[in-house]
Amino acid sequence: MMIKLLGKLILFFFVSLVSVQAQYQLSSQFDYANTLFKTGNYFDAITEYKRLIFFDSTKTFFYRSSFQIGKCYKAGAKFDEAIKYFSISELNASDDFERFDSKIEIVRCNILRGTTSRAHQLLNEMELTYSGNDSKDSINYWRGWAYMFEDDWTSAAASFAKINPNHELKLICNRVEKDKVSVTFATVISYILPGAGQIYTGNFLSGLLSLGWNVLSAYLTINAFNAERIFDGIAILTLIWQRFYRGNIQNAAEFAESKNIDIANSALINLQKQFRGAKP
Amino acid sequence: MPMFITYGDILCQDSLKELDLFSYKSRLKFGNHLYLEKDYLRASYEFREYLKYEDNDTIRFKFANCFYNIGRYLEAADNFKSIFYNSTIQDESRLAYYKSLFFSGDFNLFRNSSRNEIYLPEKYLSEVNRLYFTSFLMDNSVLPDTANFISAFPDSNKNDIRNFYIQKKFPQYKSPTTAALLSSVIPGLGKIYVGNITDGLTSFLVTGVLTFLAIDNFNHKHSFRGWLFTGLGAFFYAGNIYGSAAAAQIFNAGVKFNFDNNVKLYFEKRNYFLPENNL
Amino acid sequence: MIKSIIFCLLLVPTLSKAQTDWVKWDAVEVSYKISNASSKNIITQKQNTGSGIISFLRNIYGFFISELDGDNCPFYPSCSHFFVQAISESGMIKGPLMFADRFIRDLNFFKGKNSYPIHRIGKFYDPVSNYTLNEQMIEIALSGNGGD
């Protein structure tokens, strides 16, 4: 009887040993995969995380591995796959913090992928679910980034202002909005004075040339009509004056839009390269 | 008592071997899982490691199939070749080998290889034969005669194959020389012959108007303007002839592109008349 | 139950899109830049005009005239760029003939009926390579793609 009991205890000891050893193996595998991730071998890291998930029958590492696979795909700019794995990690999260982290990563992938409307949708859903101050700040922060990627700097500034009225990113957004030119104004003044819109947007030479062509073709047209050369007058009006007048308006609008895009891109590249805070 | 300890120790050792994530058995399990998920490149790495320890025809086939599925056809062909002899799946491997050569796009290589009788799969001779004839529709080689060509395909598809054969042998091309000659006689006629009717009419109008202006100015003793319009007329006349020949070539390129697309879609829809791959 | 259904639905696209990992890939840094969506932006439509006296003259024409009179050419590349490319690729005999043909096709009021593929910037894609009388160089482009 005692021997049988002792035998069972010994067997129990060996089984426990196996179980501990298994956990140790899986834990080592997780560390190995993390090392590959940290050294930038994302493709191989995914292989090792997948290996871990396959052999982890108790799903101890499932959330963390799925999350890391998502991060690997994100680093490789494969956002569809990244979002898939962040969604899987979200479904297998053990608490609200993990769920929140997964959702935020999905938002960040949507921003980088250019599907900012989806990012806004997710953030709006999260706003209804998560009520803590830290969560709200995080939601507003990424909402601001989504607006910046949409070239909506006013809304972005408003989002950052909800975190802190003097938030660094709010000040950057305000500066961008201030630097931008008005496309409507450029177009309207070009209707009134050809070339003015182009000068307003900083293209002085183009504006002056445009003004010159319009003045010259106006002079030639009027001259032709005055000399009763009607056909010549109509030809100059339609083939030259109208062309340069229309071109001046088109250029004013396009130069203004292009300048605004350049200002926005300059700010975005600056943020990408030099901003030290969290980025998508 | 020692029996319990020994038994426990054996159980422990076996379980630990099973838990070794990088043992060849674990690699096989993981490789099969990746293969099912269509993660073929990763699966190939696992199968390669497994095959260093154990030789297994099915796994060797799956390993080759990984390369086939990701489009690395020549590597697939090389690996299928390793299962050509003394294997229960040697016919399947031979068929897969020929499929790999076919889909590699080097149809000359495929055809030369398929004439090598020692490699042909006995069970799938007609499939390889069909692929052989299909390859002629996919490149610019001289078509063989119709008799063997059409008869290689199932009865229900013979009409379609015959149509493809005729279109390949006698494509509905337009001759660039004819187009140029027509345009030299009547400006724009070559473009109308090619099917660009509005371009042809525009050519005719432009050269016509310029010719009229030239004649009119010469008649009114405006020699400078006369020569100017003559020069422009000649310029656009020559351009119209050139453009007609170019338009015929573009038309022919379009005919070939559409034919190639139609053939590809037709055969893809029917899996090239090949059996489904079950592995 | 719902979790497992959603999980299965998530796996379906994973299976169909496994092609992502059929080639080993490296890390990629995505630029934050916003793309310029304007399809008629003359400034950003920089086309390669090559070197030489013809392209110099083209640049003068562009500076004084074509960059000021609006975006009038429905083709990509524009007629002046086509002229320069035609001469630089095919010489002083074929080049002008190609341009003469392009000019006539531009005058065609019904050019839209000619099934030119639509370039991604919204213009008719009509490359020089299609008119060299060399069949190997003809490009059959699909709408939305074509060229650089």
Output the keywords:
heterotrimer; A: 280 residues; mainly alpha; Serine Threonine Protein Phosphatase 5, Tetratricopeptide repeat; 3 domains; 83% helix; B: 279 residues; 2 domains; 14 helices; 73% helix; elongated
Percentage beta strand of chain B = under 5%
How would you sum up the global shape of chain B?
elongated
Largest sheet of chain A: none
**Whole-number mean pLDDT of chain A:** 93
Average pLDDT figure of chain B: 92
Q: Can you tell me the CATH superfamily of the largest domain in chain A?
A: Tetratricopeptide repeat domain
- What is the terminal-to-terminal distance of chain B? 49 Å
Integer count of domains of chain A: 3
* Parts with pLDDT < 50 across at least 5 consecutive residues of chain B: none
Overview of the molecule:
- The complex is a heterotrimer of chains A (280), B (279) and C (148).
- By secondary structure, chain A is mostly helical.
- Chain A folds into three domains: 22-113, Tetratricopeptide repeat domain (Serine Threonine Protein Phosphatase 5, Tetratricopeptide repeat), CATH 1.25.40.10; 115-180; 183-260, no CATH class.
- Chain A contains 13 helices and no strands.
- In chain A, helix 12 (204-226) packs antiparallel against helix 13 (230-274).
- The radius of gyration of chain A is 32 Å and the shape is elongated.
- The termini of chain A are far apart.
- The model of chain A has no long low-confidence stretch (mean pLDDT 93).
- Chain B is an all-alpha fold.
- Chain B has two domains: 55-170, Alpha Horseshoe (Serine Threonine Protein Phosphatase 5, Tetratricopeptide repeat); 176-264.
- Chain B contains 14 helices and no strands.
- The longest helix of chain B has 47 residues, at 223-269.
- Chain B is elongated.
- By secondary structure, chain C is an all-alpha fold.
- Chain C has a domain at 54-148.
- Chain C is 39% helix and 3% strand.
- Chain C contains three helices and two strands.
- Chain C has helices at residues 2-16, 53-66, 79-107; strands at residues 75-76, 124-125.
- In chain C, 28% of the residues are buried.
- At the B-C interface, helix 3, helix 13 and helix 14 of B face helix 3 of C.
